[in-house]
Amino acid sequence: MDETELPTLQIYSVEQDSPDGGVCIARCIGGIVRTGQSFALEEGDDPRRFTVDRIEKYGRAMEFMDPPHSLLAHLSGGPLTGLGYGDVLVCRSV
């Protein structure tokens, strides 16, 4: 695996949504996803930004996740409304 590759998440489903963030099931499809990283959904002229606050796998907290594993991602930074299957979030801070 190329450790210089940008961490990238592909959304499978949104499990919880709130005005401040939410929880989604996602798959790591590039790089190494770590807690504290900032991700953006590149859509239109104003990308939506989210921070990974917590990563879980089988109910256990993880510090990072690498491809091709799936994870439960706790995100903050705004509502997850509109995120859905296949949307890709790309890391903007490593």
What's the helix-strand series?
A: EEEEEEEEE
- The poorly predicted ranges are none
In whole angstroms, how far apart are the ends? 16 Å
Q: Remind me, CATH topology?
A: Elongation Factor Tu (Ef-tu), domain 3
Relative helix content:
under 10%
Number of domains: 1
Structure explained in plain terms:
The protein is 0% helix and 59% strand. The model has no long low-confidence stretch (mean pLDDT 93). A hairpin with a 6-residue loop joins strand 4 (38-41) and strand 5. It contains no helices and nine strands. The protein has one domain (8-93): Elongation Factor Tu (Ef-tu), domain 3. The protein has strands spanning 8-18, 21-30, 33-34, 38-41, 48-57, 60-62, 64-65, 70-76, 88-93. The protein has a six-stranded antiparallel β-barrel.
Brief summary of the model shown:
The chain is mainly beta. It has strands at residues 8-18, 21-30, 33-34, 38-41, 48-57, 60-62, 64-65, 70-76, 88-93. It has one domain (8-93): Translation factors (Elongation Factor Tu (Ef-tu), domain 3, Beta Barrel), CATH 2.40.30.10.
